[in-house]
Amino acid sequence: MSPIAVTKKAREFDPNTFLATIGDGRKMVLVSKKKTVFVQGDDADAVFYIQKGKVRLTVVSKTGKEATIGIVNEGNFFGEGALAVRSFVWDLRRR
Prior knowledge:
By secondary structure, the protein is of the alpha+beta class.
C-alpha cells in the first residue's frame, strides 16, 4: 500500500473576522476626509486597514515638495512597510 499525502487547506485571512474582536493592539477609528492618519517621520507603531474610503499616500522632499506615491482603497492595508523598516533598524541597533 502506498502512502497518501494529506494536505491541510490553508485558511484565507478574513479582515472582517480579525477586526470583529477589538482588543489589545486593535482598535477602530473613524477618520474624516482630508485628515492626516500618519506623518512621515513619526514612529511606526501601527498597521492600518481601510474598511471604507481610500487613503492618499504622500511624501515630502527636503525642499518641501509633496508627491503622491499611491492611493490605497478600501479592503487594503497600509503602514506595514514602515513597521518592517523599523524592525530592521531596531535589529541593527541591537547588534
